[in-house]
Predict the structure of Endonuclease/exonuclease/phosphatase domain-containing protein.
Amino acid sequence: MTGNRRMVKLVRNKKGKSANLLSIACQPRNISVSPAISTRLALLNIRSLVNKSLLVNDVIMTYDLDFLLLSETWLTECSCCAILNEAAPTNFSFMNKCRTGKKGGGVAAIFKSVFQCKEITLGDFSSFEYLCFFLKGDPKVLFLIIYRPPRYSGKFIDEFAELLSVICTDYNFFIITGDFNIHVDNNMDTNAKELSALLDTFGLLQHVKGPTHTRGHTLDLVISKGVNISSVDVKDLALSDHFCVFFDLQIIPNVQLTSVSVKRRYINENTSAKFMEAIAMSPTVSAESVDELLDQFNWKISNVMDAVAPIKTKTTLIRKKTPWRNTMMVKALKTECRKAECKWRKTKFQIHHDLYKISLCNFNYELVKARQRHFSEIINKNINNTRTLFAMVDKLTNPPKQIAPELLSTVKCNEFACFFSEKIQSIRALRSTDSGQIVKPRVQTKHGEAAFSCYAAQNWNKLPAELKSAPTVSIFKSKLKTLLFSCAYD
């Protein structure tokens, strides 16, 4: 024991020389970080979405928006879904809050369905209306759309301060937008001073500079904390007496892309010649039975097709179409709107502004008629198909269905599959113990003991005519396209 203690003491007291130390170069870890993308958003007080739904739809597509935040939608509970379905382009979703008990008011958000958004509630407030949701991503951003009625209310600053205290405590990244009906451009306005002091207290930034109303005041605001907002632009769209506020948000969102993989062979005019050349060079098929002959034929054709026209996989996003926007009249009126808008923005004359609004009304009227004709044709074609009719009514009157985030998780899907796999294995294990007592029933065929032993041979001379009259996708689609086979046969 004494010798061991002395040895430990010597080792502890022994000092190493720095000359004997080697410097090992450390490689930095490659941490894969997804690049932040620029998300395009817009804020607009629409002042009744009821008769402007298709124009709003066109604005979203024209300016390639990811989010459109609306105030004063003037929607009711019974009609909100149908109108928002018209306003939302294909592959878009929406959220909304209607004013209860009175006309007017209301806020809504229209956004691309690939973004994962979840609506939340922060309490009830009497001086303003709001819609709150958060966008899942890196970071997770809270969105708050506010509409404050123009009538004076002494409770607004107190209730808004209470709301900010809740948000700033629970969230580090958020955006507050909406129509506050406060002239923040007027330094002498009492409400503007109180709002500015409140924003400074919580360390918030207000990004809108310049008028957002036809009377020259700044009413529509974009307030943020902890996020990168850029490219703020105020533009008059002639849809209401408020201007539209465009801005960009840098974020790494959690998107749920709905894609489909398509496998196909690309066949052109040279494929048949290559096919015949490859067939001629391949060995002759020979077999003792018909089944073996067919298997070898299929194997030979598959190998040749893989050589001259290999299967290629292409993944594409599922995009729904809006065919009523592609009619000649709609396109012509859209062109007229663009010409009128360019002339008005160039001259700034009131007469050109009025002409632009008239062209917008004509364009909106034709869009409504084209959409009605499109769905009328679907109804007439499927008048006896109740399944299609009910599906169409559900699509037009209800919000789009979203896939639960849990179903998009690979881990959750694997857990689900493992659970049922283990369950099936346990059931089979229990049944295997009693396998000696199980008597398999005799399966009776539909035609008794009759067998398909003979058939009439087909006339070889009729084969070319049958091939030419056959559709391009037929029984040959698994191995050989009908059109290619017909060309090769000739």
Q: What stands out?
A: The two ends are 100 Å apart (CA to CA). The chain is about 40% helix and 20% strand. Residues 1-16, 27-33, 473-479 have pLDDT under 50 and may be disordered. The chain has three domains: 37-253, 260-317+459-489, 323-397.
